[in-house]
Amino acid sequence: MASARRIKGVLSPVVTPFKADCSPDAERFIKQCKWLISQNVGLACFGTNSEANSLSVAERIELLDALVAAGVDPERMMPGTGCCALSDSVTLTAHAVKLGCAGALMLPPFYYKGVSDEGLFRNFSEVVQRVGDSRLRIYLYHIPPVSQVSITLPLIERLIKTYPDTVVGIKDSSGDWNNTKAVLDNFAKTGFSVFPGSETFLLAGMRNGGSGCISATANVNPAAIARLHGEWQNADADARQEALNRVRSTFAKYPMIPALKAAVAHYAGDPAWTTVRPPLVELDAGQRTKLIDDLSAIDFVMPGLKSPK
Amino acid sequence: MASARRIKGVLSPVVTPFKADCSPDAERFIKQCKWLISQNVGLACFGTNSEANSLSVAERIELLDALVAAGVDPERMMPGTGCCALSDSVTLTAHAVKLGCAGALMLPPFYYKGVSDEGLFRNFSEVVQRVGDSRLRIYLYHIPPVSQVSITLPLIERLIKTYPDTVVGIKDSSGDWNNTKAVLDNFAKTGFSVFPGSETFLLAGMRNGGSGCISATANVNPAAIARLHGEWQNADADARQEALNRVRSTFAKYPMIPALKAAVAHYAGDPAWTTVRPPLVELDAGQRTKLIDDLSAIDFVMPGLKSPK
After folding, report:
1. Are B20 and B272 in contact (CB under 8 A)?
2. Cα A150 from chain centroid?
3. CB atoms within 10 A of CB A269
4. pLDDT per residue as tens digits for the range B92-141
5. Least Cα separation, residue A5 to chain B (angstroms)
6. Interface probe with B: pick from A21, A23, A87, most Cβ of B within 10 Å
7. Around Cβ A239, how many Cβ atoms within 10 Å?
8. Pick from A56, A111, A120: which is nearest to B53 by CB?
């Protein structure tokens, strides 16, 4: 398996800012992405927490183009490109590769339920063949609580065997450490990159051959999560993991995406950030106050966050 | 509530033919739609059984344009236009209205799970307002076994109250007669059109104020289903319902979409119809033989089916 161009570390499924009319706000998006990189965190833009599945393919392409045009390094990008429609997945993945993105994070097609590993294999296989670019690096996206469609161990094995230079990693957002451990045990030794979908499993992942994590709360607590990734072999690693868990569990008391946006809005002093697209609903005033109080109680800060007024 | 332009009767979520490279086959699609109309069945094209969610918005628009250009009456059409992304739903719904389609069948956004009625209300509300065309007639699409996102009774009530001339009906594919009965009891009297998502509930639906049905098996057994809709008050209605159930339960022994396509392929003498898009997988040769044997055993025929060689 090729080891070049492999993404490691901590990535954020970047929350997507919207204007008042719910159209994507490229200016705020670019500033947020630059801030995240300054905090040593890569960009898994268009993840679940990015409300990516509430964006059209054209809207995602426009944001990605704007990001690259603004000078953000595509080597730090692993955009989500897996859609329900094979044609959409091919369009978006090919565009990401053309822009030089280091990887593509791919959901399985998620409308039809109870589909077979054979059908999912054909989906990923068709994407690889139709994109037809040796630079393509696919990171599978396993998030059964939301997608309701699983990426099983036998499917991973078949994809790695068939496309060893292309299917190079996975984000495991099952929330089930036993599954993450099984993926690590089966595939990490051969160079397959495993990213738990939450920093809750960052330290355990690193101790078992993981590559980092891709986590919602990397939107708001990036530097501390990235520091544990860099210093996971230090003596204070367990204490750092516990500190990360306190922040995570505070956000987890609220609907995650609206809570992340409320925090960015508060710490950046920029209320426009609270806007979400339907079917999501923003936190109400009471929830926002409670969230910020909860975060203050654990001395949480978002350092150096700047957004346009 | 406006009663004009209301769709009634039996509609088919038309199976979508693909070429060998999995691109949509407009020629076969048009012929199939014309055949369905000749069998007295309307066109709920781009439903679940159409593999609609495996098609991009552009592919759906292209097929719909081809259908209208071929002279198929848009008054017989209720295309599926509900997508995960609000922007996609608006684009597709506006296009259907522009073409003169009698209705739009709208899934809720189905990626995010556990969303609130408020969030779903905002989604449908934004579609109505952004399309901004008094000709729009929305039929809500409740199919929790697949979408995993429900359209609840309170949500229906709020939508009807807010948009009485626009939100005019529902397809209930819950498979749960108690839910269909509750929708009928609560809303049918005020003119709301209720279509069970299977002909299994056609007679029971008609006896409780229903408007017809929208059913997968209307792709293969259209005339007989349409006849029960027309003659549901006749003395032989229960016997006709039982005959429909025998066909339905035969197909239900197989993965539904590949089985429908295998039947069309067989009775039209046109093997190209067996092609499905990933993540679905076509029936294997053994399953196809068994399906046709099962159908022969109940004297099933598809009359007058013609497809291009």
Report:
1. yes
2. 17
3. 11
4. 999 999 999 999 999 999 999 999 999 999 999 999 999 999 999 999 99
5. 29
6. A87
7. 11
8. A111
